[in-house]
Automatic annotation (TrEMBL):
This is Temptin-like. Pfam families: Temptin_C. The keyword Transmembrane helix does not apply. It comes from Crassostrea virginica (Eastern oyster). Residues 1-17 form the signal peptide. Coiled coil: none annotated. The lineage of its organism: Eukaryota, Metazoa, Spiralia, Lophotrochozoa, Mollusca. InterPro entries: S-S_Temptin, Temptin-like.
Length: 150
């Protein structure tokens, strides 16, 4: 019985924190940690670094078949006023966000397409978290996530 409980806990952990999901998210390995500047948030779709609860981006990612779709790219999952694609590094000085999101989806997030966007200056580093409201400034309604510590 104890063995089954332990196995169940391990399986739940694997299902809720699959590292390969980061490969399916634009700049998924470089999403800034809103609690610890200079660090990354390894569990992009989760509300905390260690819990299983999904944040809004994680729920949206799940609802989109665990794929970074055009709809997910254009959404503002955390409600901070910045769309997911922009938070994850898309630069909209030459093209609009819709065009860049569509390009990524049409090429299935192919590493060559991502490298092309980087080469053309259309993709930089992720600059904020798409699932945790972390924008700062006088117009921001964001609050740090609970248990926010390094």
């Amino acid at each position: 019985m104890l063995r089954a409980a332990i196995l169940g806990c391990i399986l739940v952990s694997l299902v809720h924190a699959l590292p390969q999901y980061r490969d399916r998210i634009l700049n998924g390995h470089n999403v800034p940690n809103p609690c610890c500047p200079g660090r990354t948030w390894d569990r992009v779709g989760h509300a905390s670094p260690s819990g299983t609860q999904l944040n809004r981006f994680g729920s949206d990612f799940s609802a989109n078949g665990h794929r970074f779709t055009e709809q997910l790219c254009l959404a503002d999952s955390d409600g901070d006023g910045v769309r997911n694609g922009q938070e994850l590094g898309l630069i909209t000085t030459q093209y609009n966000l819709e065009t860049l999101c569509r390009f990524l989806v049409e090429y299935n997030m192919n590493p060559r397409a991502i490298a092309f966007l980087q080469y053309r200056g259309l993709l930089g580093n992720a600059n904020s978290h798409p699932g945790i409201c972390d924008q700062t400034g006088p117009m921001s309604n964001c609050r740090p996530p609970p248990n926010c510590r390094c």
